[in-house]
Amino acid sequence: LEILVTILNENDNSPVFAQPNLTRDVPEDTKVDTAIVAREELSATDADLDTIYYELTTTVQDTDGYFAIRGDNNPEIYLQKALDYDKFNSTTLLLYARDRPVTSPDNTHTATATITIIIKQSDTRAPWFLPCDYLHNDTSVCISSPYSGRVNISEMSTDPLLLEPGPIYAVDPDYTISDRIVYSIVGGNTDGVFSVGADTGNLTMNKIVTSPDSFLLQVMATQVSNVRKYSVATVEIKVINKSDYPPYFEKGIYNGTVFVGLPRRSFVYQAGDPSTPLMITAVDEDFPDV
Protein backbone atom coordinates (compact mmCIF):
# COMPACT_ATOMS: atom_id res chain seq x y z
CA LEU A 1 0.00 0.00 0.00
CA GLU A 2 1.47 3.34 -1.05
CA ILE A 3 0.57 6.30 1.14
CA LEU A 4 1.15 9.82 -0.29
CA VAL A 5 1.85 12.34 2.47
CA THR A 6 1.66 16.07 1.63
CA ILE A 7 3.40 18.45 4.08
CA LEU A 8 1.37 21.66 4.43
CA ASN A 9 3.42 24.79 5.00
CA GLU A 10 2.58 26.53 8.24
CA ASN A 11 3.19 30.26 8.67
CA ASP A 12 5.73 29.88 11.46
CA ASN A 13 8.53 32.13 10.21
CA SER A 14 8.88 35.91 10.26
CA PRO A 15 10.18 37.99 7.36
CA VAL A 16 13.85 38.91 7.65
CA PHE A 17 15.65 42.00 6.39
CA ALA A 18 19.21 41.47 5.23
CA GLN A 19 20.03 44.99 6.51
CA PRO A 20 17.72 46.03 9.35
CA ASN A 21 19.57 49.33 9.77
CA LEU A 22 20.49 51.63 6.89
CA THR A 23 21.76 55.22 6.64
CA ARG A 24 21.54 57.36 3.52
CA ASP A 25 22.88 60.84 2.75
CA VAL A 26 20.46 62.74 0.52
CA PRO A 27 21.44 66.06 -1.13
CA GLU A 28 18.94 68.83 -0.52
CA ASP A 29 18.47 69.44 -4.26
CA THR A 30 17.64 65.81 -5.11
CA LYS A 31 14.92 65.71 -7.76
CA VAL A 32 11.47 64.44 -6.85
CA ASP A 33 10.88 60.75 -7.79
CA THR A 34 14.59 59.89 -7.41
CA ALA A 35 15.20 56.48 -5.79
CA ILE A 36 16.83 56.86 -2.37
CA VAL A 37 17.23 53.21 -1.36
CA ALA A 38 17.03 50.45 -3.97
CA ARG A 39 14.54 47.60 -3.78
CA GLU A 40 17.32 45.03 -3.60
CA GLU A 41 18.68 46.56 -0.39
CA LEU A 42 15.31 46.59 1.35
CA SER A 43 13.59 43.41 0.20
CA ALA A 44 12.85 40.99 3.03
CA THR A 45 12.84 37.21 2.76
CA ASP A 46 10.49 34.69 4.33
CA ALA A 47 11.33 31.02 4.86
CA ASP A 48 7.63 30.26 4.36
CA LEU A 49 7.89 31.73 0.84
CA ASP A 50 4.99 34.05 1.59
CA THR A 51 4.34 37.23 -0.37
CA ILE A 52 5.76 40.16 1.56
CA TYR A 53 3.73 43.35 2.11
CA TYR A 54 5.54 46.59 2.99
CA GLU A 55 4.58 49.78 4.82
CA LEU A 56 6.71 52.91 5.38
CA THR A 57 6.30 55.40 8.23
CA THR A 58 8.36 58.21 9.74
CA THR A 59 9.18 58.79 13.39
CA VAL A 60 10.07 62.49 13.09
CA GLN A 61 7.35 65.13 13.33
CA ASP A 62 6.69 67.30 10.24
CA THR A 63 8.60 64.99 7.88
CA ASP A 64 5.59 63.07 6.55
CA GLY A 65 5.09 62.94 2.81
CA TYR A 66 8.72 63.41 1.77
CA PHE A 67 9.60 59.75 1.31
CA ALA A 68 7.48 56.84 0.06
CA ILE A 69 7.73 53.28 -1.28
CA ARG A 70 6.82 52.28 -4.82
CA GLY A 71 4.06 49.89 -3.75
CA ASP A 72 2.80 47.36 -1.21
CA ASN A 73 5.13 44.71 -2.63
CA ASN A 74 7.94 47.04 -3.78
CA PRO A 75 9.95 48.53 -0.89
CA GLU A 76 12.11 50.86 -3.01
CA ILE A 77 12.16 54.24 -1.23
CA TYR A 78 11.94 57.35 -3.40
CA LEU A 79 11.69 61.10 -2.83
CA GLN A 80 8.05 62.18 -3.05
CA LYS A 81 8.38 65.90 -2.19
CA ALA A 82 11.19 68.46 -2.64
CA LEU A 83 13.49 68.82 0.37
CA ASP A 84 14.33 72.01 2.26
CA TYR A 85 17.36 71.90 4.55
CA ASP A 86 15.97 74.80 6.61
CA LYS A 87 12.89 72.75 7.51
CA PHE A 88 14.70 69.59 8.62
CA ASN A 89 18.08 67.98 8.06
CA SER A 90 17.41 64.42 9.13
CA THR A 91 14.60 61.94 9.64
CA THR A 92 14.14 58.30 10.60
CA LEU A 93 11.95 55.97 8.55
CA LEU A 94 10.53 52.62 9.64
CA LEU A 95 9.87 50.00 6.96
CA TYR A 96 7.56 47.16 8.02
CA ALA A 97 7.56 43.80 6.22
CA ARG A 98 4.51 41.56 6.82
CA ASP A 99 3.71 38.10 5.52
CA ARG A 100 0.03 38.96 5.35
CA PRO A 101 -1.81 42.10 4.21
CA VAL A 102 -2.44 44.70 6.92
CA THR A 103 -6.18 43.97 6.87
CA SER A 104 -5.78 40.18 6.98
CA PRO A 105 -7.37 38.44 10.01
CA ASP A 106 -4.75 35.66 9.82
CA ASN A 107 -1.81 35.38 12.13
CA THR A 108 0.83 37.79 10.81
CA HIS A 109 4.57 38.02 11.36
CA THR A 110 6.34 41.36 10.98
CA ALA A 111 9.92 42.55 10.59
CA THR A 112 11.12 46.15 10.88
CA ALA A 113 13.98 47.97 9.19
CA THR A 114 15.18 51.40 10.31
CA ILE A 115 16.37 53.84 7.63
CA THR A 116 18.13 57.01 8.78
CA ILE A 117 18.03 59.83 6.23
CA ILE A 118 20.64 62.61 6.53
CA ILE A 119 19.86 65.71 4.43
CA LYS A 120 22.99 67.34 3.00
CA GLN A 121 22.71 71.06 2.31
CA SER A 122 23.15 71.97 -1.37
CA ASP A 123 24.39 75.18 -2.93
CA THR A 124 20.93 76.53 -3.71
CA ARG A 125 21.05 80.18 -2.61
CA ALA A 126 22.93 83.27 -3.72
CA PRO A 127 25.06 85.28 -1.22
CA TRP A 128 23.37 87.54 1.32
CA PHE A 129 24.64 91.05 2.01
CA LEU A 130 24.63 91.81 5.74
CA PRO A 131 22.93 93.11 7.73
CA CYS A 132 19.66 91.73 6.40
CA ASP A 133 16.19 90.91 7.69
CA TYR A 134 14.25 87.71 7.10
CA LEU A 135 11.22 88.09 4.85
CA HIS A 136 8.08 87.40 6.89
CA ASN A 137 10.10 85.18 9.27
CA ASP A 138 11.13 82.99 6.33
CA THR A 139 14.73 82.04 7.09
CA SER A 140 15.35 81.12 3.45
CA VAL A 141 15.01 84.75 2.28
CA CYS A 142 16.92 87.69 3.81
CA ILE A 143 16.49 91.26 2.52
CA SER A 144 19.37 93.72 2.90
CA SER A 145 19.25 97.52 2.82
CA PRO A 146 21.34 99.65 0.43
CA TYR A 147 24.71 100.87 1.69
CA SER A 148 25.47 104.58 1.83
CA GLY A 149 28.50 106.77 2.49
CA ARG A 150 30.01 110.13 1.62
CA VAL A 151 33.25 111.67 0.44
CA ASN A 152 34.53 115.24 0.46
CA ILE A 153 34.77 117.04 -2.84
CA SER A 154 38.35 117.60 -4.10
CA GLU A 155 39.78 115.48 -1.29
CA MET A 156 41.44 112.08 -1.54
CA SER A 157 40.72 109.59 1.21
CA THR A 158 43.32 106.85 1.71
CA ASP A 159 41.32 104.86 4.27
CA PRO A 160 38.38 102.54 3.50
CA LEU A 161 35.16 104.52 3.35
CA LEU A 162 32.80 104.36 6.30
CA LEU A 163 29.38 103.10 5.20
CA GLU A 164 25.95 102.72 6.72
CA PRO A 165 24.50 100.43 7.99
CA GLY A 166 27.96 98.86 8.01
CA PRO A 167 30.86 97.73 5.81
CA ILE A 168 30.17 95.80 2.61
CA TYR A 169 29.98 92.17 3.66
CA ALA A 170 28.24 89.11 2.20
CA VAL A 171 28.01 85.46 3.28
CA ASP A 172 27.00 82.19 1.69
CA PRO A 173 23.61 81.39 3.30
CA ASP A 174 24.18 77.69 2.61
CA TYR A 175 26.18 77.78 5.81
CA THR A 176 27.35 74.17 5.86
CA ILE A 177 29.06 74.91 2.53
CA SER A 178 30.08 78.50 3.40
CA ASP A 179 31.76 79.21 0.08
CA ARG A 180 34.29 82.07 -0.05
CA ILE A 181 32.92 85.38 -1.39
CA VAL A 182 34.71 87.83 -3.70
CA TYR A 183 33.59 91.38 -4.47
CA SER A 184 33.65 93.55 -7.57
CA ILE A 185 32.10 96.82 -8.78
CA VAL A 186 29.89 96.11 -11.80
CA GLY A 187 28.20 99.47 -12.33
CA GLY A 188 28.00 103.16 -11.49
CA ASN A 189 31.74 103.68 -11.04
CA THR A 190 32.13 106.72 -13.30
CA ASP A 191 35.77 107.43 -14.23
CA GLY A 192 36.91 104.55 -12.02
CA VAL A 193 36.86 106.71 -8.88
CA PHE A 194 36.35 103.78 -6.49
CA SER A 195 37.77 100.30 -5.95
CA VAL A 196 36.50 97.44 -3.81
CA GLY A 197 38.73 94.88 -2.11
CA ALA A 198 38.06 91.53 -3.78
CA ASP A 199 38.43 89.64 -0.51
CA THR A 200 37.60 92.32 2.08
CA GLY A 201 34.76 94.31 0.50
CA ASN A 202 36.46 97.53 1.62
CA LEU A 203 35.55 100.46 -0.62
CA THR A 204 38.43 102.88 -1.35
CA MET A 205 39.11 105.88 -3.59
CA ASN A 206 41.40 105.85 -6.64
CA LYS A 207 41.15 109.59 -7.35
CA ILE A 208 39.54 112.77 -6.08
CA VAL A 209 36.03 113.84 -7.06
CA THR A 210 35.76 117.31 -8.56
CA SER A 211 31.99 117.57 -9.04
CA PRO A 212 29.16 117.35 -6.48
CA ASP A 213 27.42 114.52 -8.35
CA SER A 214 26.61 111.45 -6.26
CA PHE A 215 27.60 107.90 -7.21
CA LEU A 216 25.27 104.89 -7.21
CA LEU A 217 27.56 101.89 -7.30
CA GLN A 218 26.55 98.29 -7.91
CA VAL A 219 28.75 95.91 -5.98
CA MET A 220 28.55 92.20 -6.79
CA ALA A 221 29.31 89.40 -4.33
CA THR A 222 30.18 86.12 -6.07
CA GLN A 223 30.89 82.65 -4.71
CA VAL A 224 34.36 81.45 -5.61
CA SER A 225 33.48 77.84 -6.45
CA ASN A 226 30.15 78.62 -8.13
CA VAL A 227 30.19 81.87 -10.11
CA ARG A 228 26.52 81.39 -11.00
CA LYS A 229 25.68 82.22 -7.40
CA TYR A 230 25.97 85.97 -6.95
CA SER A 231 24.10 88.99 -5.57
CA VAL A 232 24.31 92.72 -6.28
CA ALA A 233 23.97 95.51 -3.69
CA THR A 234 23.71 99.25 -4.27
CA VAL A 235 26.09 101.69 -2.59
CA GLU A 236 25.19 105.39 -2.70
CA ILE A 237 28.17 107.70 -2.25
CA LYS A 238 27.30 111.35 -1.72
CA VAL A 239 29.89 114.00 -2.58
CA ILE A 240 29.82 116.87 -0.07
CA ASN A 241 31.81 119.96 0.80
CA LYS A 242 34.31 119.36 3.56
CA SER A 243 33.06 120.46 6.94
CA ASP A 244 35.62 122.48 8.88
CA TYR A 245 33.28 124.10 11.39
CA PRO A 246 30.65 122.72 13.72
CA PRO A 247 27.14 124.16 13.65
CA TYR A 248 26.14 126.51 16.46
CA PHE A 249 22.93 128.04 17.76
CA GLU A 250 22.36 131.70 17.04
CA LYS A 251 21.38 132.28 20.67
CA GLY A 252 22.60 130.74 23.89
CA ILE A 253 19.15 130.83 25.51
CA TYR A 254 15.70 130.82 23.91
CA ASN A 255 12.67 131.92 25.93
CA GLY A 256 9.13 130.88 25.04
CA THR A 257 5.58 131.14 26.32
CA VAL A 258 2.92 128.42 26.29
CA PHE A 259 -0.71 128.84 27.36
CA VAL A 260 -2.55 126.52 29.70
CA GLY A 261 -5.12 124.20 28.13
CA LEU A 262 -3.78 124.23 24.54
CA PRO A 263 -4.17 120.97 22.57
CA ARG A 264 -1.21 118.87 21.51
CA ARG A 265 0.99 120.19 18.68
CA SER A 266 0.08 123.79 19.49
CA PHE A 267 2.79 126.44 18.93
CA VAL A 268 5.12 127.68 21.61
CA TYR A 269 5.38 131.48 21.21
CA GLN A 270 8.27 133.82 21.76
CA ALA A 271 8.37 135.28 25.24
CA GLY A 272 6.94 138.79 25.15
CA ASP A 273 5.46 138.27 21.66
CA PRO A 274 2.45 135.92 21.89
CA SER A 275 1.74 136.23 18.15
CA THR A 276 5.12 134.89 16.87
CA PRO A 277 6.00 131.20 17.15
CA LEU A 278 9.28 130.46 18.85
CA MET A 279 11.98 129.36 16.36
CA ILE A 280 15.24 127.71 17.38
CA THR A 281 17.85 128.04 14.61
CA ALA A 282 21.45 126.98 14.08
CA VAL A 283 24.02 127.98 11.45
CA ASP A 284 27.20 126.47 10.02
CA GLU A 285 30.00 128.53 8.50
CA ASP A 286 30.71 125.70 6.03
CA PHE A 287 27.24 126.26 4.57
CA PRO A 288 26.47 130.00 4.74
CA ASP A 289 23.44 129.70 2.43
CA VAL A 290 21.74 126.91 4.38
Automatic annotation (TrEMBL):
Name of a matching Pfam family: Cadherin
PROSITE patterns linked to this entry: CADHERIN_2
SUPFAM superfamilies associated with the record: Cadherin-like
Cadherin domain span: 18-129, 145-249
TM regions (residue ranges): none
Subcellular location: Membrane
GO biological process, one term: cell-cell adhesion mediated by cadherin
Molecular function terms from GO: beta-catenin binding; cadherin binding; calcium ion binding
Entry-linked CDD domains: Cadherin_repeat
Superkingdom of the organism of origin: Eukaryota
InterPro entries per UniProt: Cadherin, Cadherin-like_dom, Cadherin-like_sf
Alphabetical keyword list: Calcium, Membrane, Repeat
UniProt GO cellular component terms: adherens junction; catenin complex
Listed name of the protein: CDHR5 protein
Organism: Platysteira castanea
Gene name of the record: Cdhr5
